[in-house]
Amino acid sequence: TATKKAAWPKSLPDQVQAIRQHLATAEKPLTAEDLTKFFSRANADRIEEVLDTLVLTGTARRLRGGKFVTS
Q1: Chain-centre distance for alpha carbon 19
Q2: Which of 4, 29, 32, 35 has its CA 20 to 30 Å from the CA of residue 65?
Q3: Residue 47's closest CA among 65, 66, 28, 64?
């Protein structure tokens, strides 16, 4: 059975929180493309910006291959 995708949050703070939560509960490092699969109407470019923000604030780390994990 396919899981229902969550709606992509409209506000930036909600987007950051949603991405951070998915990274924190992931069993493996995720790419922006991986994260788009959790949300309806999310785009990888926007998720990449959110991931970059999390890296700059020390909340996430970028690994090889464009994958991310929480710090």
Answers
A1: 3
A2: 4
A3: 66
Q: What is the dihedral of CA 44, 49, 50, 55, to 10 degrees?
A: 120
Look up the pTM and report it: 0.90
The neighbour count for residue 28, using CB atoms within 10 Å, is 7
Band of pLDDT at residue 2, cut at 50, 70 and 90? low
- Residue from 46, 44, 36, 71 nearest 57 by CA: 71
Determine contact, residues 59/26, Cβ cutoff 8 Å: no
Neighbours of 9 (CB within 10 A): 16
What is the tens place of the pLDDT at every residue in 14-35? Answer: 999 999 999 999 999 999 999 9
- Per the CB < 8 A criterion, the answer to whether 38 and 6 are in contact is yes
pLDDT at position 4 over 90: no
